[in-house]
Design a protein that fits this description.
Blueprint (H helix, E strand, L loop, with lengths): L1 H10 L5 H23 L8 E6 L2 E7 L5 E2 L3 E5 L3 E8 L2 E8 L4 E7 L19 E3 L4 E5 L12
Antiparallel strand pairs: 1-2, 1-9, 2-3, 4-5, 5-6, 6-7, 8-9
C-alpha cells in the first residue's frame, strides 16, 4: 500500500493551482500590511504630550504653553525643561520634558521591572511611553477623534 502512495506522489505536480492562489494572496496581504504599517506613521515633530494614569488624563502640555494638571501631579520647572512627577498611591513616575529639543523621556519609576525607562525619548507623533505596572501612558498631544474637547 505504501508503494502505491509513493508512486501517486511522484506523479503529482508540486503545486496545485489552488496552492499558488493561496500563497499569492498571503504574499499580497503581507506586502500591503508592511506598506500600511511603515508608511502611514505620523513622523511630524512632537507638539506636546498628554499623560494618562489608568485611562484618566492627569497632565497635558503643549510646547511653549502652560501645563495643565491634576492634584496627583507635581510639576517642577528646570532651566532645560519640566520635570513631571506622577503620584498614584505608592506608585511614582517622573517624566522629563525637554523644551529645547522638544523631546520627552521617563527618567524615574519605582515599579519592579522599570521597563518604561528603556523607551527611547519621544520626539515625534508616532512615539509613546507606557508603564504597565502603574498604568501610566505618555502619548503625543494630538487631536483625539473620540473626544476633541478633553479638559483636565
Amino acid at each position: 500500500m505504501a508503494l502505491k502512495k509513493i508512486e501517486q506522489v511522484k506523479k503529482d505536480s508540486g503545486f496545485k493551482l489552488f496552492d499558488i492562489i493561496i500563497y499569492g494572496a498571503v504574499l499580497v496581504l503581507v506586502a500591503v500590511l508592511f506598506i500600511v504599517l511603515f508608511t502611514t506613521r505620523d513622523k511630524s515633530t512632537l507638539t506636546g504630550i498628554r499623560i494618562y494614569v489608568h485611562s484618566q488624563v492627569v497632565f497635558e502640555y503643549e510646547f511653549g504653553g502652560e501645563p495643565q494638571y491634576t492634584d496627583s501631579v507635581e510639576v517642577r520647572e528646570d532651566g532645560n525643561g519640566i520635570y513631571v512627577t506622577i503620584l498614584n498611591g505608592n506608585d511614582k513616575n517622573v517624566v522629563f520634558i525637554d523644551n529645547n529639543r522638544k523631546t520627552v523621556k521617563m527618567t524615574e519609576a519605582n515599579c519592579k521591572g522599570k521597563e518604561c525607562l528603556y523607551f527611547a525619548a519621544m520626539d515625534n507623533n508616532s512615539d509613546f511611553i507606557y508603564c504597565s505596572p502603574h498604568g501610566v501612558k505618555v502619548e503625543p498631544l494630538k487631536q483625539d477623534l473620540d473626544n476633541p474637547n478633553i479638559k483636565i
